[in-house]
Amino acid sequence: MKEKTAFSWVWSYVRKYRFGMAAGLFLSVIVAAMNMVNPLVTGSIVDKVIKGGQHELLFKLIAIMLGVVVGKSIFRYSYQVIFEHCSQNVILKMREDLYAHIQKLDFSWYDNAPSGNVMTLLTSDLDKVRHFVAWVLYQILENSLIYIFSIITLASINWKLTLAFLVIAPPVLLLVKKFKVHIRPAHMRVRDQFAVLNTRVGENIEGNRVVKAFVRENYETERFEKENEGYRDVSVANADMRVKFMPWIDALCQVLPVILILFGGYLVINNEMTIGQLVTFNGLMWAFIQPINMFGNLVDNTQNFGASADRLFELYKAEPKIKNTTEAENSAEGTVEKTSIEGRVEFRNVCFAYNETPVIKDMSFVIEPGTTVGILGPTGSGKSTIANLMCRYYDADSGQILIDGKDVREYNLQELRRNVGITMQEAFLFSDTVEGNIAFAKTDASFEDVENAAELARVKEFIGDLTDGYDTIVGERGVGLSGGQKQRIALARLFLADPKIMILDDTTSAVDNDTEYKIRQSIKSRSEGHTAFIISHRVSSFENCDVILVIQDGQIIDKGSHQELISRDGYYHDVWAEQAGK
Ligand SMILES: Nc1ncnc2c1ncn2[C@@H]1O[C@H](COP(=O)(O)OP(=O)(O)OP(=O)(O)O)[C@@H](O)[C@H]1O
Ligand SMILES: [Mg+2]
Questions:
Q1: Which ligand is nearest the CA of 377, by number?
Q2: Identical fold at 6-317 and 345-580?
Q3: pLDDT tens digits for 308-357?
Q4: CA–centroid distance, residue 86 to ligand 1 (Å)
Q5: Side by side, which strands form the sheet with 501-505?
């Protein structure tokens, strides 16, 4: 199969509107042809009415001219509406598809994708495509046709003068060819730098509290200025390129009136042409000049579109590494319902590295269904990574992770993730109500369900303090709530989802001891019949754990119940002694 290019990818969207577009292009052909009429009629007025004395023709000729003007306006209006309509629909679908596509991309893609770039792609790059479909496309056709029609029309009147007009064509072509080579990379640089600028703004807004806390406003402003200046520089370089080429094209066009007067005048004197024909030439001179002037502009626009289409196509081509096997995909037709799994988890010689440095090293363990497992280890030891692997956010480099004896890679991803649920270390809340944030886990949940989950996660204890209770909008990233409150809402979300295997990654790190104790009781009641993993730095969190894994440097260095672990020397004992003040 022929490999898809950026252009054919765009075409696959435009194709759907090909009939509408064809109708629009047809109208633009008519308009281009109509452009020839009035200069011809003007010539006739000079030759037949003024010089030939056929005065009765005047009204007829003027009526034709008026008719052409009105017709042109109507046709022009019609095809512009058509193209605008088509282009907006094309972009709607493209944006929809790309948005759905980035939902499928996995963690490792997001690890390397600056958010500003994605934003730029979905807004300004897409707009370049829209502009191409809505305007550039028909401008190319219309201008080419105006140029060709004017050559034909004028050549039929006088081929010598037409030929003289054409002498400027080769140098213009050469200039535009050179321009084209240089302008595309210049556009690419502008788009890339624009994305960098967007990322900088996004990060600054997101991190504005940190900026203020460290009094780094000036530093941030300077950093922004640097990128901003970078953007100006690439834009200026881009504009320079244009202004360098355009005056040459313009100057070449200025030669035409001179040719008209000198050579045209000579032909009239020699009786090879009438005055009326000279007037027609004069009237159609714009039809020679406008396409040439537009030529550079359209090539510029096309290259700009090309650069954006390439960037968008790049996003479209990005493939998630984590995806369903064909069987898993086929086994889950339509939406995947939660399947009843037992909840047995096994790591079999698992090795994993995000990049080069190994993070999980030959890890093996078996957790029987219904067990509550604690995971303790120094920061950076790989605890969250274990969770990431269980949910299949990343795939192990070697070894196997098995749920109920089946490799996680053989599960349908949705099915797997409905059964292995997690509250992430950094609680994320959407700009939505508290209820909406909890119900995110299960959109068809009743308010009672949401309330029950909220009660279990101890959200109920502070909900009364919020102005609108469950209807309080928690801002972007849950601003307006304390760290512990956010964590509890995130926990309620997991409780509502009620997956068979629950992973709580440092979920109570920001709550006080008393609340943590209460949450522990909730987890205990909730984890009945579930397999639960509790990742924590607090030994007290492991109170109800059947077994605790002690992780260091990507390996399990110890394992046992709380009593067993404190009875022997080691990391666990040290942490416990320190926290309990022994
Ligand atoms: N997305 C990532 N890309 C590259 N490296 C990563 C990524 N996430 C984590 N790491 C690295 O992997 C190692 C283990 O990280 P992990 O988040 O699993 O630690 P952790 O035990 O959960 O620590 P903490 O107790 O601080 O939460 C760290 O050295 C970390 O720098
Ligand atoms: Mg972690």
A1: 1
A2: no
A3: 999 999 999 999 999 888 887 777 655 556 677 899 999 999 999 998 89
A4: 47
A5: 420-423, 501-505, 531-535, 372-376, 547-552, 555-560
Instruction: Output the CA 556–ligand 2 centroid distance in Å.
Output: 15
Q: Count the residues in the chain.
A: 582
Report which of residues 70 and 511 the model is more confident about: 70
- CA angle in degrees (0–180, nearest 5) for 253-274-39: 55
Distance CA 332, CA 322 (A): 16
379 by Cβ neighbours in 10 Å (0-12 / 13-18 / 19+) ranks as exposed
Report whether CATH 3.30.300.30 matches the domain 345-580: no
pLDDT, tens digit (0-9, with 9 covering 90-100), for 84-119: 999 999 999 999 999 999 999 999 999 888 888 888
Report CA(59)–ligand 2 centroid distance (Å).
Answer: 87
Q: Which atom of ligand 1 is nearest to the CA of 107?
A: 1
Domain spans of the chain, in order of start: 6-317, 345-580
Ligand 1: which of 359, 376, 557 to mutate, most ligand atoms within 8 Å of CB? 359
- Residue of 383, 386, 549 best suited for mutating to test ligand 1, as the one with most atoms within 8 Å of CB: 383
Query: Residue 478 pLDDT more than 80?
Result: no
pLDDT in tens, 79-90: 999 999 999 999
378 — pLDDT class (breaks 50, 70, 90): very high
* Index of the ligand 1 atom closest to the CA of residue 111: 1
pLDDT average, residue stretch 427-455: 91
Alpha helix (H) residue ranges in 47-168: 57-104, 107-111, 115-120, 126-131, 137-157, 159-165
DSSP annotation of 137: H
Output the residue whose Cα is nearest ligand 1's atom 5: 354
Task: Spell out which residues line ligand 1, taking CB within 6 angstroms.
Answer: 111, 354-355, 359, 377, 379-385, 425
Kindly report the protein residue whose alpha carbon is nearest to atom 30 of ligand 1. Answer: 380
Say how far apart CA 376 and CA 383 lie, in whole Å.
Answer: 8
Share above pLDDT 70 across residues of the chain, in percent, rounded to a whole number:
97
Which residues share a beta bridge with 350? 363
Neighbours of 65 (CB within 10 A): 16
For 6-317, CATH number out of 3.40.50.1970, 3.10.180.10, 1.20.1560.10, 3.30.70.1230 equals 1.20.1560.10
pLDDT at residue 236 tops 70: yes
The 3-state DSSP class for residue 534 equals: strand
- Phi and psi at 423, nearest 5°, equal -105, 120
For the segment 243-298, what is each residue's pLDDT rounded down to a tens digit?
Answer: 888 888 888 888 999 999 999 999 999 999 999 999 999 988 888 888 888 888 89
Expressed in angstroms and rounded, the spacing between residue 106 Cα and the centre of ligand 2 is: 19
Ligand 1 centroid to Cα of residue 355, in Å, is 11
123-131 average pLDDT score: 93
